Amino acid sequence: MLGGLLLEGCGSSKPAESVTVTVKKDGSRFSGTVVRREANSITLTDSYGSVRTFLYTEILDIKNGLTESPATGASGQTTTSTNIPAGASSAPATHSSGSSAKVTSTGFILPPGTELPVVSSGFFDSCCVERGSFAPGKLDADVQSEGRVVIPRGANVTVMLMDVSTSEGRTTVRFELGALDFGGRHYIMRSVKGEKEPGAVATYTGAKDGSMEAKTHGLNVHVDEGSLMPFKTALPTEVSLSQ
Question: Is 236 a residue whose pLDDT tops 60?
């Protein structure tokens, strides 16, 4: 479960964060307390006092909380059934994927246009939250394929701030979904084209510089805690069990 991961920003104090990172290269995991977050990296210390710094480009996933992995070895990896999707039900869905979700050996693929409304449990502000930052959230509606719920409402998700850009006097911020937890299992979510192409995306654009809206609300894009974020898959997006 993702729990209450808080983002850095705007100088607010917060309790220590305990997270588990999964490394892209070999799938190994490292659990510990966050010592420092920077624009391109995160530094953790574990219960033995070991300190490690990970570049965000090296990380496949960040999950809130410490991972317990009995009989799994030093990497912390676990063996999980590939039958999917755990936690799915036959209850009526609020959002349909539009066309069928394709089953794979480790999960399923959502077609383009699939809506995933998410309520954020953290805040984002383009003024003070860095690219690569994470916050937890919860899916606000069931996601259905062919009358079957493939992702249930209430699933925990990881929201990632992927890009901040400015064009023609407006700031645009792109968010993506990076992971889901439901049915007692942890899933990674990404476009079938890999990291260079977006999967499930929500995009916000701020006020135009010089406009009345900008004078009233400023130029920064701000997403409050508890905001409904309308994610939608831009490309076929794979939801696969974390190994």
Answer: yes
